[in-house]
Amino acid sequence: MGGRVVRRIERADRSVIDGLAHAGVATVHEAQGRTGLLGRHLRPIFPGARIAGSAVTISAPPGDNWMVHVAIEQLTDGDILVLAPTSPCYDGYFGDLLATSAMARGCRGLVIDAGVRDVRDLSAMGFPVWSAAVFAQGTVKATLGSVNIDIVCAGAAVRAGDVIVADDDGVCVVPRETAAAVLNKARAREAAEEAKRGRLAAGELGLDIYDMRSKLEAMGLRYE
Fold it and tell me: Would the pTM of this model clear 0.85, i.e. be above it?
């Protein structure tokens, strides 16, 4: 049932959020046990953006963007809008005017399992969006949805205040309660990968670094 706006949500510490942004989607996904990825069909409208922020969630009827306007009022600096339609829809819910309003309230970007439009203007503005489609079809404002409730966006459960991490590899959600622990694991992975990167650059093979040879032999691999 629509018609709810939750005004007060808990958010992770800003330093944790920014640390997860620096780590990036692939590392964060691995660090939290290969969980949290949103569907692969969500793609950035322009390359190179890497962000993280607290989710302000939107449950919106198909073809109706009324709740986006409602959600923008609930934004605080560092948030990310996350929209899931209540049934599949690729209409353009969001464009440059809404982005202007969202940016004025400190919004870092939008993740939407539907369509966006005005992508040239959004790109020029530097407002990052990960969407299921780019589609000029407009929307109406006729039916209530809800803001800051639990949603499922592109196959992943997202709660208001969870941390959203997004970059060229896709989008990942980190539960707010575990964000600091995931960041620690992500930093450990980064340190380990940096050490391996140096060894690989020096000419060592992954076969030896990861001790693969004996396992491959046991599986029956033979060189001829």
Answer: yes
